[in-house]
Design goal:
By secondary structure, this protein is mainly alpha-helical. It has a single domain, classed as Up-down Bundle (Growth Hormone, Chain: A), CATH 1.20.1250. It contains 16 helices and no strands. α3 packs across α9 and α5 packs antiparallel against α14. Pfam families: MFS_1 (PF07690). Keywords: Membrane, Transmembrane, Transmembrane helix, Transport. It is a multi-pass membrane protein.
């Protein structure tokens, strides 16, 4: 199987296995007897785990190979899923979240690094296509996950477990890797890889600025991601099924966002596209929080999701063009770790704000406050990007600046 086709297939399955359960995750936790604050606590455990494991697991992928890292990650995700659906005990759920975080870390930069190193397709094509495929997967997950959950909240998890097993099979038999023997026999130690990656990341101005942007955007996404289910289902006064159609709708919007990045890339620099994405996220999340009736909130939330679809593609393209293969997985993991820190802080803050929200009939004001606040946070990177772009003395992009320096 060609590298890019395997990448697209695995990307679809990875998104499917997490999003089919994510469609009703918070509702599932509420059904287990947890409050919204307790649900946020579990998510904090998940993202703290990612923060702690990201850089070491990225270094493992750089040292021992991408394939083994991806497969180990899928095995951890399988254990997480089985534990999560099996128990209602908060202690076991916390334990499961640790494995879920480790699973994400082992897979995060590894698959991305593998396809960049083993495919002859341009990065713009690889990442815009894979993100569009993921959002199509999200469309399917939205409808299927909500449909299955109307019968039993555990059924989406059964579908997730099946997709994990299929993904493990594909990676085990079709994921070929170049230079893996060279990596394993290299005298470079994992500690050295981590140290060099951190040094490169913070000495390269364009890279560490994007790290900081990830911190702010992840903080912003904390409330938008966590509170979408109780906010939209509560305002609609419909059953769980409505979330399936909403999920399908915003998956299409995220696909549109990914497509827009490819189109805008023809005319605009990567820094400007990042600005547009952050602006879309910030402005429309503020409006979604300001309104408090179903259809205006739904419309503004869907436009916000277009921005969310733009952002990861723009950042992937920007970062991968500026880092070498030797430290690629570790630097991508460092970026992810910093982003998880922003998510953790956001979840803690919005969890405190929403601590009195316990069921769908609760007052929506805490969620509104959280969304408006997080929308404002998402606008901070625009100021940062504008300042750096102006100081650089270039009217186009950082990419052009670095190209001239290399020449």
């Amino acid at each position: 199987m060609q590298s890019h086709k395997l990448f697209y297939s695995v990307s679809f399955l990875q998104f499917f296995m997490s999003e089919i359960t994510g469609t009703t995750l918070i509702l599932f936790l509420l059904a287990k007897g947890l409050s919204l604050q307790s649900a946020n606590f579990l998510l904090v455990v998940f993202f703290v785990s990612i923060f702690l494991f990201e850089i070491p697991t990225g270094a493992i992928a750089d040292k021992y190979g991408r394939k083994i890292s991806v497969i180990l990650g899928l095995c951890c995700f399988l254990l997480y899923s089985v534990l999560f659906v099996w128990t209602d005990h908060i202690g076991v759920l916390v334990f499961a979240q640790v494995f879920g975080g480790l699973a994400i870390c082992l897979q995060s930069g590894s698959l991305e690094s593998w396809v960049v190193e083993n495919s002859d397709k341009p990065m713009e094509v690889l990442f815009t296509t894979s993100n569009s495929i993921q959002y199509i997967s999200g469309f399917i997950c939205g409808l299927l996950g909500a449909f299955l959950a109307t019968f039993n909240y555990s059924l989406p998890w059964a579908a997730s477990i099946l997709s994990i097993i299929v993904c493990i099979f594909l990676c085990s038999f079709y994921m070929d890797e170049e230079n893996v023997a060279h990596r394993k026999t290299s005298t470079t130690r994992i500690k050295t890889i981590i140290g060099e990656s951190v040094r490169i990341g913070f000495e390269n101005k364009s890279i560490w600025i994007v790290f900081m942007i990830g911190l702010f955007i992840s903080f912003s996404n904390s409330a938008g991601n966590t509170f979408q289910q109780p906010r939209l289902v509560g305002l609609s006064e419909q059953g769980i099924w409505i979330m399936g159609f909403i999920k399908a709708g915003y998956s299409l919007c995220m696909t549109l966002g990914s497509y827009l990045v490819r189109k805008l890339g023809v005319r605009y620099s990567d820094v400007h596209i990042l600005m547009y994405a952050c602006g879309m996220i910030g402005i429309w999340l503020i409006l979604a929080g300001a309104f408090n009736t179903f259809y205006p909130v739904l419309l503004t939330f869907l436009i916000y999701e277009i921005g969310r679809g733009m952002y990861p593609v723009a950042k992937q393209i920007f970062l991968n063009k500026r880092i070498s293969n030797e430290y690629r997985s570790t630097l991508l993991s460092l970026d992810s770790a910093i982003s998880q820190l922003g998510m953790c802080v956001g979840l803690i803050v919005t969890g405190i704000i929403s601590r009195n929200f316990t069921d769908l009939s609760s007052d929506q004001t805490p969620i509104q406050i959280s969304w408006v606040m997080c929308g404002g946070i998402a606008l901070i990177p625009i100021i940062l990007l504008f300042h750096v772009n102006r100081v650089s003395g270039k009217s186009n992009s950082w990419k052009e600046k670095e190209t001239k320096q290399n020449v």
